[in-house]
Amino acid sequence: MSTQQAAPMVAMPLPKAKKTMAMAGCCCLMLAMTFSGIAMNTILSPILSSMNAMQYVSLFSVFATLGVAIMTPVGAKLGDIVGRRNILVFAPLVCVICTIGMAFIRALVPFMICRLLLGFAQGAFTATPYILVSLINERKDVPKAMGMLATSIAVGTFVGGLISGALADAGSLEGAILVAVVPYAIGIVLLALSVPNNKPSGKVNIDVPGIAALSVALAGIILPLNFGSSMGWTSPIVLGGLVVGIIGLVALVKVEGKSANPIIPLRLFSNKLYTVLLLVGLMCYFYMTAINIYASMAAIRVLGASTSVTGTLQMGRTLITVLLPTVAGAWVGKKAANSWKAMAIATACAAIPMLFLAAVAKPGTSPLLFILAIAVTGLAESFRSVSITPAAQRTLPPQDIAIGTGLINFMNSLAPVIASASMGVVYNMQIVADPTNVENIQRGVRSVFLLAATVLTVGFIVVLTVVRPLMTKNAEEK
Questions:
Q1: Do residues 324 and 386 touch, judged by C-beta distance below 8 A?
Q2: Is pTM beyond 0.85 here?
Q3: Are 274 and 174 in a shared domain?
Q4: pLDDT at position 82, please?
Q5: In CATH, what number is assigned to the domain containing residue 71?
Q6: Mind listing the pLDDT tens digit for each residue in 26-64?
Q7: How many helices (H) and strands (E) does the chain have?
Q8: How far apart are CA 145 and CA 135, in angstroms?
Q9: Fewer CB within 10 Å of terminal CB in the chain, N or C?
Q10: Contact indicator for 118, 59 with CB cutoff of 8 Å
Q11: Residue 326 sits in which domain range?
Q12: Which residues of 349-365 are buried (b: 16+ CB within 10 A; e: fewer)?
């Protein structure tokens, strides 16, 4: 009797065993993606060095960003067309093939092709686990399920770093990257056995013009933002790229407005709450570049910390994001109002540490203060990961949940690109006179932390003044 009552509340009802397998498979894929990212950071420099190709390090970073950004919304839409199981099986399978190729190939061009394809394949399925958990779980359980995905990412960061680092130190660069194959393979098998491949009957046209316009727009924006700091923002190549990106965006709007089956339905943006949640999600991710790059730089160049100590800066944050998201998700699922409260916590618990880091980034400061401040951002990530996506999904009709979720993940992948560009500008403004001067570096990193704090504070205000009343209004109407 209870099963009959629960079934209508789940978009894709599964037997308990298959539901457990599907959840485990999604967690394995998120774990594998994190393993892969950590492994890339570990092995890229030594492998490129062995090929005398160190000048291409930044290009590989662009490949990863560009592939994920383009394919995240495309992959979410393709799931509607070819079936979720196909996306969750075949895209990770391409990742396995590319990962194995990168482990053994030592010729530059094939290695670059594997890296580019890996980014595209990851982007093709990265939103689908978030879509699937919203389909196989009751609405009240979705935040908790997304907390499990966040925990998987945190575990992958910690364990993947340990395993990849140990294998690389032992001289096995191949092993350091091949570790990602194991969770990929487990996830593929679990999902292939548990998820039905529901897809529309009959022929469904793929929006090829929309994909082309999206690709041109993103390439025209992402490439200049990545190379603007090194080439100069007034470079004709950078400015030309931005013009191409703007033209691509205009073309995308026109193409999608006329398409019968658009990759990005423009009607999504008529939903005020959904649109605001997209922006809040971007702002919640903005600070990550500050702690991933500039906090380490500040610790070494300003505080005078050792490399080994600097490597522990995010240990507290990692521990919190391993333990807290599932608990936070259960709390968010208990009451609709807890969603905006979680977003408020997410923005505040990132803004305050950024302000604190700006204040203490000076010679003589103990690295322990950096470790504690960054640990607080683990609270921010834990509550962000279980609130924004489920809340956005609740605002959408069933036919738009997939692409709507894909756009949220797209904004998450775009945030570091925008952050890197803007933070690079404010940092370079402070060090232009002498990039080696400690006082200039201190002013530069403080400017970065203040910029991040400002964006997060705006996010906090938006949550209180826009998200809260809109969510309250929606709840009353329902």
A1: no
A2: yes
A3: no
A4: 85
A5: 1.20.1250.20
A6: 999 999 999 888 888 778 878 888 888 877 777 777 777
A7: 23, 0
A8: 11
A9: N
A10: no
A11: 265-478
A12: bbbbbbbbbbebbeeeb
